């Protein structure tokens, strides 16, 4: 690999997951000639890394669900090119990071396997491709059906979208699918403050977990409407999660997948018109329970 990156790793060296993040950062830096940002130094002297961040693509490596490195990036309005979470990588490989700084016997092999699996994803940049480069595939602006209840207005796209009953959608073009949450769900969650999308390269099953959304009210686990491999995430929502509240179907999409079983998946999904009927029932039931 020839592309160079700017790597921001987790600083939680009191736990194995943080140590693994550091080891992956060192391996990536050595293999690509990239630079590592010290998270502690960055927070005290950010100007030290300003030129590096202007010139290179930022790869964030979180140790665990605390996402300290991602939060540093978000708090400083840094654009994330790719994000890796070591505990998520561990789940895929049945590796169990310990509770303290001691690194397990299989740590070196684990880090090597994580690095090997991420190389094809990172090569997208070397080939001149950027996350979400298929934006032109997905039609917009969209035509919506509208349901009004009291002061609330709920929108559902009429064409090209399929929904599960967990209020997540997929917009399909060829073998690609863009996924997100419905207008109904974003209004129920209220002000969205943080998004953890699935990592590029992740294999997702229909009705499996596809990241989380945090709001002032709750943490919501996204339920994938389709089966496939994540090929891109919407970087805009990492910097501005409120886009999901403002425009969940166009600007606030969450990830793009290469679909692997859509014909079978579609049997368990609702088109826009059928989902609108489900939405009306949910709104009525919610208000009846007040």
Automatic annotation (TrEMBL):
Assigned GO CC terms:
cytoplasm; glycine cleavage complex
Keywords for this entry? Answer: Lipoyl
- Which Gene Ontology BP terms does the record give? glycine decarboxylation via glycine cleavage system; protein lipoylation
Q: Which residues form the Lipoyl-binding domain?
A: 176-258
Q: Which InterPro entries match?
A: 2-oxoA_DH_lipoyl-BS, Biotin_lipoyl, DGC, GCV_H, GCV_H/Fam206, Single_hybrid_motif
Protein family (similarity comment): Belongs to the GcvH family.
Which PANTHER family does this entry report, sorted A to Z? GLYCINE CLEAVAGE SYSTEM H PROTEIN (PTHR11715), GLYCINE CLEAVAGE SYSTEM H PROTEIN-RELATED (PTHR11715:SF3)
Classification via NCBIfam families:
PRK01202.1
Protein's UniProt name: Glycine cleavage system H protein
Please tell me the species this chain comes from: Neomoorella thermoacetica (Clostridium thermoaceticum)
